[in-house]
C-alpha cells in the first residue's frame, strides 16, 4: 500500500502533536499540520499532492465545515478523502460534516482502534483511486480516448447536486451514526428503471448529466426533510432521511415524476431515452437491531427491486 501524504488541521497544537504520534505509530509518517483554515488553504494552494485531509470541526474563524466546502471547490481536491474530527457525537454534527463533502468522521479523544480502522479504509480508497487513474492514463495513451471510461455499475459522484455525497461517504455516515443514533432514520431507494438503456445510448458526460438531473429533482422534492443521498451505481440512488417520510412511496414517485415531466421535451430533443422512475418503500431499523448500520442501504435497494418486480405499474414514465 502506498504512502499517504496527510494534512491535519486543528487549532490545538498539543492535539496535533498527539495525532502525529498516533498516526506515525500506525505507519503514517508523512503528516503536515496547520493551526487555522487560512494556513491550511495557503498550504493547499502552494502545493498539490496531499492524499488525505484531517479537519477539526471547531477550528476558530472559518470552521471545519466551511473549510471542507472550500477545499472541495479547489482544483485537484474534489475526490481527496477528507476526515472530520470532533468532540461532538450529535447526529446533526455528523450529518453536517458529510453534507459538506466529508468522506469520513471520527470523534475525539483519539481511539487507536477507531483511527486505525478509519485510516485503513482511507488508505484502501486512495490506493484504488490511484489504480484507476493509472489504468485510465494507460488506456488514454494507447487509444487516445478523451474521457475516463465509466462502468454502468460504478457509483458515479454527483458533486454539483446539494446534499448528494459519494456512496462511500454515505456508508461512512451510517457507521459514524451507529445503531442507536440511526433509530428514527429511514432509507429509501430510487431507480431510473431504464438507466441501462440511457447508458448505452449516450456518452459518459450525458449519462452523468441525466443522473444529476434526476438526483436534483429528488433532492428538491425532499428539501423539507433532513437527508443525504448518493448514487449507488446502476441508475440507483439511496437516501437516508433524519426521520420517517410522511408520504407513501407511490405518492412520492408521482410527485417526482410530475417534476421530471417538465423536461420531457428536452429529453426528446436530445434524443435521450426518457427516464422511468421507480421508488422503493422506506426501510427503518429498530432501536435494538443487531444488523450493521450499513445493511440499511442494502435493504432499501432490495425493497426497491422487489417492488419493481411485483408491481410493473409502479414504474412512472415521464
TrEMBL record:
Response regulatory domain location: 5-123
The keyword Calcium is annotated on this UniProt entry: no
Listed GO biological process terms: phosphorelay signal transduction system
Alphabetized SMART domains for the sequence: REC
Keyword annotations: Phosphoprotein
Protein name, per record: Two-component system response regulator
Pfam families in alphabetical order: Response_reg
InterPro entries: Bact_response_regulator, CheY-like_superfamily, Sig_transdc_resp-reg_receiver
Superkingdom, taxonomy of origin: Bacteria
Sites of 4-aspartylphosphate modification: 56
Species name: Cereibacter changlensis JA139
